[in-house]
Amino acid sequence: MSQHTLIYEYVDLYFELSRDRKKYYPLTSIALNGHWEVDGVNYYRYRLIELLKLEPEHIAKTLDSIGTEDLDSFWFFYFDGPHLAKDMPDEVLALDRISKRVFASAKGVYEYYREVHIKD
Fold this sequence. Notes:
By secondary structure, the protein is mostly helical. It has helices spanning 3-20, 25-29, 40-54, 56-64, 68-79, 90-93, 100-117.
């Protein structure tokens, strides 16, 4: 088994165990102060995006419980990568109806990335 395959299996297991136990903070806390890499971090980010699509209420509640600096840090990790979408992702837009604070943080970080990375 290759090292990359093993990393993916560990990330999958970590997500499954945390979700089964309704422990969302450990899943989101890894993203704090993180940045995108072409490795297991990229796969972790992919799984985090999928989790937000599947369980937006749980993720919003978890993120709403952390400080503003950590919340912004989470979104910097979430939007980091080689390609920023020209429009804010639907799973993030959906947060507006769940938590205004979490959505405002996401929107601010997304707009920062658009300003820095996308030249219209």
